[in-house]
Amino acid sequence: MPAWEGVSVLGVGTTMFGKQPELTGPELVRQAVFEALDDAGVDSVDAVFAGTVFGAPGTIQRALQTCGIVEVPIITIENACASGTSAFHEACRAVDSGAFGNVLALGVETMTHHFGGAIHPEPTDREGRQGLAMPSIYAMSASRYQSVYGVTDEQLAMVSVKNHQHAVGNPRAQHQRVVTVDEVLESRLVADPLTILQCCSIADAAAAAVVGRTRDGLGVRVRSSALRSGALWDHRSPNVWGWDIVASTAQDAFTSAGVSCSDIDLFEVHDAFTIGEIVTLEALGLAPVGEGALLAESGHSALGGPQPVNPSGGLLSRGHPLGATGLAQVAEVVWQLRHDAGSRQVDGAVLGVVETMGGGTAGVDGNGCVVAVLEREDR
Amino acid sequence: MPAWEGVSVLGVGTTMFGKQPELTGPELVRQAVFEALDDAGVDSVDAVFAGTVFGAPGTIQRALQTCGIVEVPIITIENACASGTSAFHEACRAVDSGAFGNVLALGVETMTHHFGGAIHPEPTDREGRQGLAMPSIYAMSASRYQSVYGVTDEQLAMVSVKNHQHAVGNPRAQHQRVVTVDEVLESRLVADPLTILQCCSIADAAAAAVVGRTRDGLGVRVRSSALRSGALWDHRSPNVWGWDIVASTAQDAFTSAGVSCSDIDLFEVHDAFTIGEIVTLEALGLAPVGEGALLAESGHSALGGPQPVNPSGGLLSRGHPLGATGLAQVAEVVWQLRHDAGSRQVDGAVLGVVETMGGGTAGVDGNGCVVAVLEREDR
Question: Domain containing B309: what range?
Fold first, then answer.
């Protein structure tokens, strides 16, 4: 069902990632969109799907008018952390259906104006009412996971060490510095066992992709994408939070693309917290349940290893400006598949996967997940 | 382009409209969705497009899980006041493309928890920084319009009188009472010349429609829908705020459906303020520019007249819970075309139009408009 025929990413663009309170949402959008249009070699698009979680009404339309994108349909999508990837998925579906020619997928978030620290849970949110902000939910997952599978604090920390190492090669990442296991473990405790270097930080950024019909010699093909809602976790599930929805969505995307996890050369996944990457990689099929922590420890998921994960630095080190994250992941995979990723290039990359999970703070009740399979076109 | 083939509304549902702070967003969603599913005679859908402006992340997903709608793609759309109609448009497009079978279009807003009075302009908004909340923008339009076309305060007020009269027949409307021209003009001044009975009030509500393939003898066909962004107003335009985008979007929808304005039996349009209905009806083609105020005065747009406008009471009297409004308009047109609208029935209605304009407070820079043409199936 979500297999696309002749759908490609023709161009991508992003801003810098980090705290940039001096830039407004529209200013960030302009930077990313102009880069993506220029990269695609087009000066207009036929429709826009834009992801943002806390963006004010009108932000996208206002920004795009100043980019010369007027009158075309603009759909602004809120799907929590998966907002940007949901916009990308909808853009692919729109091109696949023949409804539009070139479609802009866009994500933006200005967080430093909204949040001093962690995102506030909504007052109507069940977990929120119990004090369960996102770090707490992930921390409970991590505790259970450690208890069941005997994973150590050091093994959790190694995910952060790996992704910070990767970000050193990404000139647009928020945290471009090496950290050690000791530094990670000794950094401020946020929610036991997660220290602050195991939590993504708030950021301001935008990212964009131009999606269109496949043209010879240009761009990166989108083999498939899948979007599911609900079932982030079920109290009857033997798995920890997030596993279930990632597994079912990934299965959709892999089946549609006719690939298996072992075929994939690199992954950009939702490592909002270290435990998140571990659980996600198990759900994607890189390791059996309970063995996901070995992937960072062994170097399997590091640059230079057989299946690098988050070569951009991931949410932990590139930063996690909610709505922008999905398109930043797409941009990274596109650069990698074009063999244009500089010092963080995954050698000979042909197939890449983007995975984003959106949980809101209504985590238990579910929200959404998107998984997309992208392929270098000259394969 | 936006002409749909074999797309129908199979069922609709709404909550009551009004201040209902005791009900949460998910509770409102459940009421509307269960009624729509029941009305359509289906117990599941293949995808969901939901409109909300200020809904907290996760609201839609949480609500739908309790309706038994799980795992399917859910796309939450924010397109200001046109959020609900944008969701409806996207649902129609999804069915038309063959991507899904039955699709739920949904809108919800809980405003009484967010706003004590008028919606606050966003601090990054250009008009907002100058104090231009929505009533001020519409008031400036009204002043210019009155100055250019010699329209009186009484003529403005007659739009409110008409729509309040209509709402008396709508048991779900927020304001089910007759008002006189004098009462309208003597009510509290909000922004000169607009008094409070010429301004829609905040409300809490949800509304939903099940969109699917046309089935003999059931439902109402969607002949076309169109969505445009931008160009709400241009300082070079001879028209007042809102006219330009409504006119171009309506032209798209009418051309695609192969109908003209004079063919339409009833309209549900965006009368957020009295001047809004006047300008919108001119943009739709019911009257030449400058003569829209005559439609209410002459009874042309009243129930019993040749082309009733807002038989539900419209935004002015049914209420305007932002994200829910578009689907409430769709529900009203569907009930009318089924000849199931009780004492407010438009006799023999065959063709109906829904129009919603989304302005955010970034009005001048534009946002979006949706126009849809619906038809009784046994025509």
Answer: 128-200+222-376
> Judged by CB atoms within 8 Å, which residues 290-309 of B form the interface with A?
none
pLDDT per residue as tens digits for the range A221-239:
999 999 998 766 666 778 8
- Name the phi and psi angles at A224, rounded to 5: -165, 160
Instruction: Please indicate, yes or no, whether residues B63 and B174 belong to a single structural domain of this protein.
Output: no
The CATH number covering residue B46 comes to 3.40.47.10
Residues A208 and A180 in one domain: no
Single residue among B167, B192, B219 that ends a domain in this structure: B219
Helices marked H in B187-272 — which ranges?
243-257
Q: A100 with A57, same domain?
A: yes
Rounded-to-integer distance, Cα A311 and Cα A291, Å: 21
Cα separation, A271 vs A353, in Å, equals 14
Q: Is B118 on the interface with A (CB under 8 A)?
A: no
Report the domain count for chain B. 2
Dist CA B299 CA B304 (whole Å): 8
Model confidence over A135-160: pLDDT tens digits? Answer: 888 999 999 999 999 999 999 999 99
Which of A65, A76, A361 has the CB atom closest to B58's CB atom?
A361
**A237 at B interface, C-beta within 8 A:** no
Instruction: Please write the tens of the pLDDT for every residue from A32-87.
Output: 999 999 999 999 999 999 999 988 888 888 889 888 898 899 999 999 899 999 99
Same domain, B46 and B179: no
By annotation, the residues of B acting in catalysis are 81, 320
pTM confidence score: 0.94
DSSP letters, B111-139, are -TTT-SSSPPPPTT-HHHHTT--HHHHHH
B107: β partners: B51, B207
Q: What residues 17-36 of chain B have any CB closer than 8 A to a CB of chain A?
A: 24-26
Q: Is the pLDDT of residue B361 over 50?
A: no
Q: In chain B, which residues have their Cβ closer than 8 Å to the Cβ of A105?
A: none
In this structure, the answer to whether residues A76 and A153 fall within a common structural domain is no
The answer to whether residues A331 and A367 belong to one domain is yes
For residue B30, tell me if it sits in a domain.
yes
Q: Are residues A264 and A331 in the same domain?
A: yes
Residues B269 and B151 in one domain: yes
Among the three residues A153, A187, A219, which one is the final residue of a domain in this structure?
Answer: A219
Nearest to A57 among B62, B78, B97 (CB): B78
Asked if A173 and A201 count as a contact pair (C-beta separation under 8 A), the reply is no
Cβ within 8 Å, pair A79-B78: no
